[in-house]
Amino acid sequence: xxxxxxxxxxxxxxxxxxxxxxxxxxxxxxxxxxxxxxxxxxxxxxxxxxxxxxxxxxxxxxxxxxxxxxxxxxxxxxxxx
Length: 81
What we know:
By secondary structure, the chain is mainly alpha-helical.
């Protein structure tokens, strides 16, 4: 008797897979074509935004502005306590 295929999530949860679902997942993971497509995509986008403004810096600046607005709102509500 074969044991059911199981998928273990990063959180440690165990998901039992049907034989058909297992075959589909295995096909995705093992397929060399999928690996080539992923590699091709990574190579095609690598350095795409080199020399342009940093999106990470813009995101961090936006987050700092959001944080400052939230702190100002809290100070208004609680009188700067």
